[in-house]
Specification:
The structure holds two protein chains of two kinds. Chain A has twelve helices and eight strands. Chain A is α/β, with parallel strands linked by helices. In chain A, strands 1-2-3-4-5-6-7-8 form an eight-stranded parallel β-barrel, surrounded by five helices. In chain A, helix 10 runs antiparallel to helix 11 and helix 11 crosses helix 12. Chain A is globular and about 65 Å long. Helices cover 29% and strands 23% of the residues of chain B. By secondary structure, chain B is α/β, with parallel strands linked by helices. Chain B is elongated. The two termini of chain B are 27 Å apart. Chain B contains eight helices and nine strands. Classes of the chains: A alpha/beta, B alpha/beta.
């Protein structure tokens, strides 16, 4: 095994993996992180800590990861090309690996224009493919990006990438997955899936190329807990494929609580369908600051207890 | 060519507030083509300044001069008499022109009257778009003549990202094309789609050693 990653262990033994996201706080307090880590511990194999998600300032991913590790949960650090050049990224990779982070998600990063500091200078010294390659080279060749050898212990990280299976055209999205696998991705976590039929088509193309054998595909799940959120995601978020029947289901409820229940039900049904798709290695649950929903969904989808 | 936009009137008025004799200096090359700082724009700004001051009952004498290229010392030298007759200069040239003026007339404050924005081309009448980031290591042979460094919002060399909208637009702005969709379509037309599958390593950010200098090759 290349790493001490619990996520890698679960995937290696062929178990359906569960990861979930913990939102970093917009302050210096560890208490909510600790609370959320303990809330989802035992329900997930590893947790993700986004890094400046949506280009909004919050506690750095690596710090949230360290809190999680201390509480005994395997962590997936996020690193983006948006805020750091190749020097800063490599320094952080050495640091997080030294402190026991076993997994990394390599991202280009949400555009700064979306965030709360839109006048910031973007970096983009690397793109996500180049970042994946760099982490792989550090790990497998024990070489820095400039080719110099690492003397001593190299960072041993299980390498992840993000993927949007709703990107068009479908063939291009599959090719992009292939590029990420070639670059060195061990696993991918996808954007939330709502259109299961569309995702099945994408997975068919993925299997045709045999890519599901080269990379562990972890499908994204985000429960939509209100009609307004569903409408917003359908119309305002680019490349979010929300079928009308989901909107209809959220329309046919009597109140807020019922809408939330319906959203969770849809998420659970989607997970159950995902389990049936050949090549789907697990699910990644993103609840957008509602971490209390994670154990609920895991229980309802019979993902608990974890091996 | 170099594209610029005139600064807001309020800002220019502030810059020259202490002066009673001001020269507005234009450039007939790039900034004239993008309607920001040619002879015509010099005339417009001069009139606006005179009107604004007269409305405030404050005296001003605005001189006008335009040279062929404000980024060349010899051409700037042609207007030295007019500069001598002014207390301050507002240059409507690009940043390069402003600095040439400032260097040649060191005893005179030279203020920028435009914001230099990018290297680009006219897309249609009155609309200019960015085309080149002057990176010093041209990549256009691999991308069907579409520059991903400035035309992709993230400057990705191995694009696209996951944010391409349906219809090939960028996630940050539904009015802007995704550069990587343009590249894909161009390469498809040329039967060179294999280039889309190639991996390109990170660019050398020191291809141009700042501040840049280019020495002509000896004949």
């Amino acid at each position: 095994m290349k790493t001490k990653s619990n996520l890698a262990r679960i995937l290696d033994i062929g178990q359906f993996a569960v990861t979930a996201e913990i939102s970093p706080p917009q302050n210096t307090q560890f208490d909510t992180i600790k609370k959320n880590v303990n809330l989802i511990k035992g329900y997930v194999d590893a947790f993700n800590a986004p890094d400046g998600q949506a280009a909004v300032v919050a506690m750095a991913s690596w710090a949230v990861c360290l809190v999680g590790i201390e509480e005994g949960l395997d962590a997936i650090v996020h690193m983006t090309c948006r805020d750091q050049n190749r020097i800063a990224l490599q320094m952080d990779i050495l640091a997080v690996s030294a402190f026991g982070v076993n997994n990394i998600l390599c991202l280009s990063g949400d555009p700064i224009y979306f965030g709360n500091h839109p006048k910031t200078k973007p970096v983009f010294d690397l793109d996500s493919l180049q970042l994946i390659r760099m982490v792989k080279q550090l790990r497998d060749e024990k070489k820095f990006d400039n080719g110099e050898l690492i003397v001593g212990t190299e960072p041993r990280l299980f390498i992840g990438a993000a993927m949007n299976p709703s990107a068009q055209p479908l063939e291009a999205a599959v090719n992009h997955l292939k590029d990420k696998v070639t670059a060195g991705a061990d696993f991918v976590q996808t954007q939330p899936i709502y259109n299961i039929e569309g995702f099945k088509k994408w997975m068919e193309l993925v299997r045709e190329k045999g890519l599901h054998k080269d990379v562990k595909i972890i499908a994204g799940i985000t429960p939509i807990t209100s009609l307004a959120a569903a409408r917003y995601m359908k119309t305002k978020v680019p490349n979010m494929d929300i079928p009308d029947r989901i909107i209809e289901r959220l329309k046919n409820v009597r109140n807020k609580d019922e809408a939330a229940e319906e959203g969770i039900k849809i998420a659970v049904e989607t997970i159950n369908q995902l389990k049936q798709i050949e090549g789907v290695a697990g699910v990644h649950i993103m609840t957008l600051q509602r971490e209390e929903l994670i154990p609920k969904i895991c229980n309802a989808a019979s993902l608990y207890p974890r091996p | 060519m170099i594209i610029a936009e005139r600064k807001p009137m309020e800002e220019i008025k502030q810059l020259i507030a202490p002066y009673k004799k001001v020269l507005v200096a234009g450039c007939e090359t790039c900034v004239a083509v993008c309607w920001a700082g040619g002879e015509k724009e010099v005339g417009i700004l001069a009139s606006q300044l005179r009107l604004a001051r007269s409305a405030e009952r404050s005296e001003i004498s605005v001189l006008e001069a335009t040279v062929e290229r404000q980024c060349e010392r010899e051409m700037v030298a042609e207007i030295k008499d007019k500069v001598a007759g002014a207390e301050a200069v507002i240059s409507l040239a690009c940043g390069s022109g402003v600095q040439t003026m400032a260097e040649m007339f060191e005893d005179k404050p030279v203020f920028p009257g435009v914001n230099t924005t990018f290297i680009g081309m006219p897309e249609k009448e009155g609309l200019w778009v960015e085309m080149c980031g002057a990176c010093g290591d041209c990549f256009l042979d691999r991308t069907g003549g579409v520059c991903p460094i400035v035309r992709c919002a993230k400057g990705l060399l191995n694009g696209p990202c996951g944010g391409t909208r349906k219809g090939g637009k960028c996630e940050i702005d539904p009015e802007k094309d995704c550069a990587w969709v343009l590249i894909y379509r161009r390469l498809e037309k040329q039967g060179r789609l294999d280039l889309m599958r190639k991996y390109y390593p990170p660019k050398n950010a020191r291809a141009v050693k700042r501040p840049g200098k280019v020495q002509a090759a000896k004949a």
